[in-house]
Amino acid sequence: MPNEPISAAPQPATVPAQSLRSAQAPSTWPTNAEILAALGPWMLQRRWFPLKGDAAPPLGSLRVIASWEPEEGVRDLVIAALRGNQAETGHRDGMVLLHVPVVLESAEALDSFATPGEAPGNHGLLVTTGSQGSPTQVALVDGAHHPAFWRAWALSTLKAGTVLSEAGALAIAQRAPRLRVTTGEQSNTSVILPAPSDPAEALGEQDAATGDLIVKLLRVLEHGRNPDVELSVALARSGWDRVPTPVAWSTMTWTRMGGCGQPALEESTDSAVACSFVPRADDGFELFCSLASTDDVDGPVRARAVELARDLGRTTAQMHHHLAASLGTSRPPTPTELAASLRKRARWALEEVPELSGHIRALELKVEQTMERLEALEALEPATRIHGDYHLGQVLHEIGGQQRWYVLDFEGEPLRPLAQRSDPDLPARDVAGMLRSFDYAAAVGKAPHSDWLPAVRTAFEEGYRLGRQETGLGSQPVASGIRRTSGAGGGVAPDRADLPGARQGPLRGRLRGPQPSRLAGHPHGGDRVGPVQARGGLSTQRSSIPSSPSVRRPKAPVNHQRMEELLYERQHT
Predict the structure, then answer these.
(1) pTM
(2) Residue 145: exposed, middle, or buried by beta-carbon count in 10 A (0-12, 13-18, 19+)?
(3) pLDDT band at 59 (very low <50, low <70, confident <90, very high)
(4) Whole-angstrom Cα distance, residue 544 to residue 387?
(5) Kind of pairing, strands 246-256 and 265-276?
(6) Which of 503, 430, 466, 455 is CA-nearest to residue 291?
(7) Residue 156: which residues within 8 A CB-CB, separation 6 or more?
(8) What phi and psi values does residue 445 have, to the nearest 5 degrees?
(9) Which of 248, 180, 247 is nearest to 568 (CA)?
(10) Average pLDDT value for residue range 137-146
(11) At what angle do helices 284-293 and 300-327 cross, to 10 degrees?
């Protein structure tokens, strides 16, 4: 039957001592046909569902590719959705795979799993089923909202051995009833699993001993390792402490049947990851916007901006060192090959945004001169895995403690296919992304002094060179101007189109290359939340340098629970 699971990798069942489902929860599931008929319209309304408008799947085209039931009443589904406009878009494979865990509950219990402030219906849906004889309504609770799913998930990672901390995985299983789904609109689903606020609230030994955790449930699946999971785990295993430490992660394996005589293919991917939480930190973009807007040239605010930029450069060099040491290096393109690729991208950018030429004097000449300098190099440094979408919105600066930078979100450029995001690349691309990001901060923060941007960029580059020397990477063979050009490969036009007018700033600041905003209000895109001041409760003070009394603070009352959620979301959405 087309709607039955084709195959599923064996997964050990768990038999919890006590069910986390309601006492009235039914034991008989609706049929797959009934489940898919109900899930279709429900998924179409979810932020994480990628096929909207003309791309929406045709009626009746959804299929269950694989299904696991790690404990009674809990199912982890992989659903194949047919792209509705594949003929027009030319997609070779029109199937999109979606990760949809569900928990069977009574209809009356459904709304008890809703999170205050989230989009209506996110927590689940009602299904009318005839599987029990007469038509009956039951609830399918979105697995991310139900403690039974997260307990089963944590125990399955222990049995699969996909953990860096057994205690952390056990803590997830124990504290699952305290879960809180974040309410920001995201392309994945993030769930906060806070530590007990009082020892008496602890639900087990590991729960009491483990700090706050956050789990990211990946919604759209592609065959292959997810870079965010793969790179975070590799960096943590290498001993680098500037990433939120992964605690546990899960993988899925299924068989996709080949068509037109093609053989069946076994596929697998990462499906969720749990990490530790940086308890108090500033968003890097907001921090530099604030420092730009309150710049005092020769005073403590400028000194702090320069110091932070220099330290961020050193952190970036450390990241590249650990990525190369953990995952190896490969042959880079030749300078001539890279120059040819960048010329092509530059031509495309000028065609898409013709006002670039009018705004930046002799732009075409400057691009060509940069390409000539690039071609004159003897060789480029070895390629390795890189962050791939590196900018100020992807880093947090610790408040208190050692006041370190933390790097987040290694999924890479979101518009590129997963396989391409896992390809080795030049570390200079990350450097270019961060240099460009300072441009955004200067524009959004409305830096009152023109030398602020060169000062922080120079400090970042100095820190990067110092970090390379400290880690043994040696000098960077690509000049600053070439680094900025090499980062302009993801597309200028989407960046301009997606940034809201109030945030675009000078043309120079908004047209330096890719960082397409997937949520209006944050120039660096991603599943970010709100404009700069929306997370304004986060302190930008640092003990070693006095803060300026003119640093902007939010005028509205602060919702501290929402502030906590937003900080969680910044780390893993």
Answers:
(1) 0.78
(2) buried
(3) confident
(4) 30
(5) antiparallel
(6) 455
(7) 11, 12, 14, 70, 250
(8) -80, -5
(9) 180
(10) 98
(11) 150
